């Protein structure tokens, strides 16, 4: 398959690129500053420069792709619109370019109502206060996707950390996990690359964490 990874210089994006290359896909690594991309263990992707705040820059890199994976991030905890602007730009460019699937990342902290009581209190008192502005924009992103006609998958993750992938990650569709402490970036990247064309994930919220 032809895969575009937008946000490829980030720690999760780099892993998705390398795993997709290892699986034999044709990969385009898309970033604002492609010269920051590392050398990859499993090949060399095509590289393209684009910025989700400048939608026209995405048209070329996403043209002819089968799947678009967005691993966008924000710096700090201040108000941002990178995720919602990104969703609007990416859905338009992916649709115009003929992509069949758009995968994005979000936060497990957006849905706390069905968590166990203790975890719900900690999340609301700590996580929501620290990341309120980021969560607001992630919620806007999810709303943009829900209103679109593209086949999207939102991967909701808890706190991310470095480390090897989980052998048996926890996965729930459209509802929170009963326990979700952390997830390694490698776990998330592996799950994404294993489900690039899985129709069971289309237009669904996938909650993912380590075992």
Characterise this structure.
The chain starts with a strand and ends with a strand. The longest helix has 16 residues, at 82-97. The protein contains six helices and ten strands. α1 (11-22) links the parallel β1 (2-6) and β2 (26-31). It is α/β, with parallel strands linked by helices. The strands form two sheets. It has an eight-stranded mixed sheet, sandwiched between helices.
Features:
single chain; 211 residues; alpha/beta; 8-stranded mixed sheet; 6 helices; 10 strands
What is the residue-averaged pLDDT?
A: 91
Distance between the termini: 29 Å
Continuous helix count = 6
Tell me the total number of β-strands: 10
Percent helix among the residues?
Answer: 25-40%
Q: In what range is the share of β-strand residues? A: 15-25%
CA radius of gyration is 16 Å
Task: Going across the biggest sheet, name each strand in turn.
Answer: 3-2-1-4-5-6-10-8
- Give the biggest sheet: 8 strands, mixed
Contiguous runs where pLDDT drops below 50 for at least 5 residues: none
* C-alpha geometry: globular
Task: List the helices and strands in order.
Answer: EHEEHEHEHHEEEEHE
Structural category is alpha/beta
């Amino acid at each position: 398959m032809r895969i575009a990874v937008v946000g490829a210089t980030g720690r999760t994006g780099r892993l998705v690129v390398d795993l997709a290359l290892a699986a034999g896909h044709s990969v385009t690594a898309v970033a604002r500053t492609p010269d920051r991309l590392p050398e990859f263990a499993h090949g060399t992707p095509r590289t393209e420069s684009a910025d989700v705040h400048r939608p026209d820059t995405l048209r070329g890199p996403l043209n002819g792709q089968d799947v678009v994976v967005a691993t966008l991030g924000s710096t700090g905890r201040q108000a941002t619109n990178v995720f919602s602007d990104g969703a609007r730009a990416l859905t338009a460019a992916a649709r115009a370019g003929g992509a069949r699937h758009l995968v994005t990342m979000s936060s497990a902290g957006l849905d706390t109502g069905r968590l166990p009581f203790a975890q719900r209190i900690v999340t609301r008192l700590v996580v929501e206060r620290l990341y309120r502005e980021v969560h607001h924009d992630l919620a806007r992103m999810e709303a943009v996707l829900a209103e679109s006609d593209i086949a999207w998958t939102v991967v909701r993750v808890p706190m991310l950390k470095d480390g090897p992938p989980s052998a048996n990650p926890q996965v729930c569709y459209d509802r929170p996990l009963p326990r979700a402490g952390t997830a390694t970036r490698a776990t998330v990247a592996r799950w994404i690359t294993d489900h690039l064309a899985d129709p069971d994930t289309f237009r669904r919220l996938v909650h993912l964490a380590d075992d």
